[in-house]
């Protein structure tokens, strides 16, 4: 899976949770919770959906690494490598 | 009982609990004496902000830290009691200059910024009424609450104003002033003021408005099963309850550093994230950032937090992450842990004992009660899963509604509605503009809470569930009607029914069932469109997390959607009495 595929999965995951937003319009370093009005339950669902879709184990302690688009792509890319 | 009690031993060192023996304190307690323990205003009046701030300055504790604020990005600001006095005096002067008077409603809409704390307490000094709004509300919940509450002034950030208020601001004729923080003073939106500028121009001494104990002070919105949100009216006398419950239920001592993680947009963050700790002369720790377990443990350690008041959803998330990471932190200063918002499951109580070396103390109250009513106390054995016993001065009972009133249920562990004997100081004094709705809460000399509970033979109370359809998600009450109304505004929606679906983290999540109008067909795209529609209007705290399509929703003869039936079917539970069902689900 390429880095672009991972990015697509992250962006689609976000627009499933917050369809009223355009995740491509926010920067890679923006805090998703603020930029997309995502609460802690939304974020949990976002991470669980990524886990299911990409078949990557994401331990809870790593969740904060996925709080930005850039962070999520880096983290998943490293895990899938 | 499947869970063993957690026994408390008398500590021989360290801080002795404020409530050493439950029975003794209850026997000697009176609200009159608690009131006398406060100073009151020089003329005999009572003002929450005076008891919270000015009183300590007058008693020579002006240099004591009142508030330590931690910014998202690592900033840190300290405010002493004398600082808070000056700043809230300035804020009150700024309000008065603008013509905001006693009884006028001032709304606050922002994250946990220092200005929120200053605005809340400064508003009270001016004799005006403060009404906090949760910053994660969308435009509709904000607007409906400000309309119902006759907002005269709003204190918010420029970003929140532009995103959630500006579009409809002029449709609220009573809203005369908008004060902005975190704003670009060179290019303010039309009709707004910079709070910093207004405060800079104001004097820093202020004579507190001589409020009486029964003058309105706070307006907290909560949700019912039907109709619009309800504005629960609280008065300045509530501070007597905040002082007592902070001292007895949260065991706050003047040298404590208290971290209440609740946002002041909700009643817990106002009563126990501001008023109770300050009234008891302690130091508030405020973190602007959202939940992040490692950050939280760092805050507990670095800020030497001694009293920590948080919520089951956060505790369950920490539990999931596990205890290993907790061992990296020195949390030895933590003395008292408490939880509120929804019942804390016994597993989490037992886990906390093992994870932190001390258990979480669950307690129970609601927006209407203004303060903690039933609690697990520092000196009292905990039965995991129980909300504890009533606060001294509070009479609680389990009752059954009867055609002619209510009957008290004396039998241990019999289920009924939790009821409280009216008359405690922080009791709500009305739902704003809705006298009938208020009166209906009191039957046969009891305030009926709408919560179903049981009491055991030792006097401990156990939560069972809500008596109505109100949803409790992450500790917040959500009215299904508010969510259904927003969904109905979408052109594709013919009917909507909203329920609380049990969730291991949040307690319940908001789930919507939707039937479409002719010409629309269910699809994944439409589901997302409806979700986005609801989120845009309601914000993430209120909008549904799940939406399912139905061809028809179950209804009574009068056309009322049977949420109870939707919920029973969602959960696979017995469907109960179907005699009123006229049109069934498809």
Any idea what the shape of chain B is? globular
What class, by secondary structure content of chain B?
alpha/beta
Largest interface: A-B, 18 and 30 residues
Reading side by side through the largest sheet of chain B, how are the strands ordered? Answer: 2-1-11-10-12-13-14-15-16
What is the H level of CATH, i.e. the homologous superfamily of chain A? ACP-like
Q: Please name the CATH topology of the largest domain in chain B.
A: Rossmann fold
Work out the helix count of chain B: 17
Q: Count the helices of chain A. How many?
A: 4
Q: Assembly type of the shown chains? A: heterodimer
**How many angstroms separate the termini of chain A?**
8 Å
> Structural class of the helix and strand makeup of chain A?
mainly alpha
CATH domain fold name of chain A: Non-ribosomal Peptide Synthetase Peptidyl Carrier Protein, Chain A
- Give the class-level CATH name of chain A: Mainly Alpha
How would a textbook summarize the main sheet of chain B? 9 strands, mixed
Give the overall shape of chain A, derived from the CA principal axes. Answer: globular
Low-confidence runs of chain A (pLDDT<50, min 5 residues)?
A: none
Number of strands of chain A: 0
Protein name (chain A): Acyl carrier protein
Domain Carrier (chain A): 1-80
InterPro entries (chain A): ACP-like_sf, PP-bd_ACP
Pfam family, one (chain A): PP-binding
Task: Tell me what you see in this structure.
Chain A: This is Acyl carrier protein. The complex is a heterodimer of chains A (81) and B (586). Chain A is mainly alpha-helical and 81 residues long. Chain A has a single domain (3-80), classed as ACP-like (Non-ribosomal Peptide Synthetase Peptidyl Carrier Protein, Chain A, Orthogonal Bundle). In chain A, 57% of the residues lie in helices and 0% in strands. Chain A is built from four helices and no strands. Chain A has helices at residues 3-17, 32-35, 40-54, 69-80. Chain A is globular and about 30 Å long. Chain B is an alpha/beta fold. Chain B folds into two domains: 22-451, ANL, N-terminal domain (Rossmann fold, 3-Layer(aba) Sandwich), CATH 3.40.50; 471-583, ANL, C-terminal domain (GMP Synthetase, Chain A, domain 3), CATH 3.30.300. In chain B, helix 3 (48-58) crosses helix 4. The two termini of chain B are 42 Å apart. Classes of the chains: A mainly alpha (81), B alpha/beta (586).
């Amino acid at each position: 899976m390429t880095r672009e595929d991972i990015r697509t999965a992250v962006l689609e995951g976000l627009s499933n949770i917050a369809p009223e937003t355009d995740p491509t319009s926010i920067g890679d370093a923006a805090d998703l919770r603020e930029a997309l009005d995502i609460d802690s339950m939304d974020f949990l669902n976002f991470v669980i959906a990524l886990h299911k879709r990409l078949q990557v184990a994401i331990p809870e302690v790593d969740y904060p690494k996925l709080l930005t688009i850039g962070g999520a792509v880096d983290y998943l890319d490293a895990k899938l490598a | 009982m499947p869970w063993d009690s957690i026994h408390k031993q008398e500590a021989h060192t360290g801080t002795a609990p404020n409530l050493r023996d439950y029975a003794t304190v209850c026997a000697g307690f009176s609200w009159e004496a608690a009131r006398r323990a406060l100073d009151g205003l020089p003329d005999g009046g009572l003002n929450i902000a005076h008891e919270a701030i000015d009183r300590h300055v007058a008693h020579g504790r002006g240099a004591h830290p009142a508030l330590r604020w931690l910014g998202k990005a690592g900033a840190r600001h300290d405010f002493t009691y004398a600082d808070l006095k000056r700043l809230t005096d300035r804020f009150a002067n700024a309000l008065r200059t603008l013509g905001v008077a006693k009884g006028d409603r001032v709304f606050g809409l922002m994250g946990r910024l220092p200005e929120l704390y200053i605005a809340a307490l400064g508003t009270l000094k001016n004799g005006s009424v403060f009404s906090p709004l949760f910053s994660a509300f969308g435009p509709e919940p904000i607007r409906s609450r400000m309309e119902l509450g006759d907002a005269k002034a709003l204190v918010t950030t420029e970003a929140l104003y532009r995103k959630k208020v500006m579009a409809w601001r002029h449709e609220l004729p009573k809203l005369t002033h908008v004060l902005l923080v975190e704003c670009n003073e060179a290019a303010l939106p039309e009709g707004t003021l910079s709070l910093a500028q207004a405060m800079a121009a104001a004097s820093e001494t202020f004579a507190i408005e001589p409020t009486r104990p029964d003058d309105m002070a706070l307006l907290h919105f909560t949700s019912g099963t039907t109709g619009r949100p309800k504005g629960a009216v609280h008065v300045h006398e509530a501070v007597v309850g905040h002082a007592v419950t902070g001292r007895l239920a949260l065991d706050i001592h003047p040298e404590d550093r208290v971290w209440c993680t609740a946002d002041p947009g909700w009643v817990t963050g106002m009563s126990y994230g501001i008023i109770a700790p300050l009234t008891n002369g302690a130091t508030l720790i405020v973190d602007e950032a959202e939940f992040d377990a490692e950050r939280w443990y760092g805050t507990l350690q670095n800020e030497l937090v001694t009293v920590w008041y948080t919520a089951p959803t956060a505790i369950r998330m920490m539990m999931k992450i596990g205890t290993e990471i907790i061992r990296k932190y020195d949390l030895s200063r933590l003395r008292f842990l408490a939880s509120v918002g929804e019942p804390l499951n016994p597993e989490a109580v037992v886990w906390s004992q093992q994870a932190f070396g001390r258990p979480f103390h669950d307690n129970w109250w609601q927006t209407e009660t203004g303060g903690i009513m039933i609690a697990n106390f520092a000196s009292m054995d905990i039965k995991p899963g129980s909300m504890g016993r009533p606060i001294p001065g509070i009479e609680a009972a389990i009752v059954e509604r009867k055609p002619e009133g209510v009957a008290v249920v004396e039998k241990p562990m019999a289920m009924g509605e939790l009821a409280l004997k009216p008359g405690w100081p922080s009791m709500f004094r009305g739902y704003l503009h809705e006298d009938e709705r208020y009166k209906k809460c009191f039957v046969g000399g009891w305030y009926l809470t709408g919560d179903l509970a049981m009491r055991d033979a030792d006097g401990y109370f156990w939560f069972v569930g809500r008596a109505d359809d109100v949803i409790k998600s992450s500790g917040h009450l959500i009215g299904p009607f508010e969510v259904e109304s927003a969904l109905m505004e979408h052109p594709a929606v013919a009917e909507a029914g909203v329920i609380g679906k049990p969730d291991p983290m949040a307690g319940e999540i908001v789930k919507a069932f939707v039937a479409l109008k002719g010409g629309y067909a269910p699809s994944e795209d439409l589901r997302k469109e409806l979700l986005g529609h609801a989120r845009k209007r309601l914000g993430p705290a209120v909008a549904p997390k799940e939406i399912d399509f139905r061809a028809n929703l179950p209804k009574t003869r009068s056309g009322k959607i049977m949420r109870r039936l939707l919920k029973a079917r969602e959960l696979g539970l017995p469907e109960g009495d179907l005699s009123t069902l006229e049109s069934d689900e498809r």
